[in-house]
Each structure stands twice: as C-alpha cells, then as structure tokens.
Design a protein that fits this description.
The protein is mainly β and 131 residues long. It has one domain. It is globular, with a radius of gyration of 18 Å. The N and C termini lie far apart (62 Å).
C-alpha cells in the first residue's frame, strides 16, 4: 500500500560550516558544524557529535550528541546522549539523559493542556470577577 505523504526533508549543516544568525523553518535539521544565533524549527533537530551550537534551540524532538550553549525547548522529547554537553535551560515534554551526558542549567516540563468548555470559548467566562 502506498503512502500519500512525503517524508519531511532534512537540512544539513555539515562539519566545517559555521553559520551566524537565525535559522527558521519547518524541516528537520542535522547540525554537524557550528551555529551562533538561534534555531527555531517545526521539525526534529539532531545536534551531531562534532557540532558546537551557541544558540537558543526550539524544535519538536531534539537529540544532542555535541555541545549546546543556550536554552533548548523541545515541544515533545529531548535526549542528551552520552557525548552530549548542554549548558542552559531546558523546557520539554519529556527528557532523557544518557549515562555520560553533561547538563548544567534548569529544566522545566511542559504539561499537557486539555481544552475544557470554558477555555475553548464556550462561555467566554475567564473565571475573573469584576468585584
């Protein structure tokens, strides 16, 4: 049976390439070089073992094998592998630190938000009083 959807493309920053600035997009990314600035993607991000990232990083699922200096937001899952070094604050729905990984900073878990009739705009009641 054939699938109608195409796999999400992956952008590559190869070893030996350094980028200064902001990276935004909807693709997955594999970073092997160096980034200074920010990375904000609506896809998955892999920071390779040779990568040095001095940036705030935001993506769906993030795997850190190299070095990240900056804050990381994983909308779903963050994994810091044994070769990974992270210096900054983490916000994620789930976090997995492998043996040998290094993390210095604070972590915050993203909670599941469930819509109720009140928050979905059903009544317009915010729960605040005019008194």
């Amino acid at each position: 049976m054939e699938k109608d959807s195409q796999p999400t493309p992956t952008s590559l920053v190869s070893r030996g390439v350094c980028i200064e600035g902001d990276i935004q997009g909807s693709e997955n990314a594999l970073i092997q070089g160096c980034i200074k600035g920010s990375i904000r993607l609506n896809g998955d991000i892999i920071i390779g073992s040779s990568a040095v990232v001095e940036a705030d990083v935001e993506g769906n699922n993030i795997i850190i094998k190299g070095t990240v200096i900056g804050n990381v937001t994983a909308r779903e899952h963050l994994e810091i592998q044994s070769t990974g070094k992270m210096n900054g604050d983490i916000t994620a729905r789930s976090i997995d630190f492998k043996d040998g990984s290094s993390f210095e900073g604070r972590s915050q878990m993203i909670k599941n938000h469930r819509k109720t009739a009140d928050t979905a705009g059903g009544t317009g009641n915010t729960g605040e009083s005019d008194e």
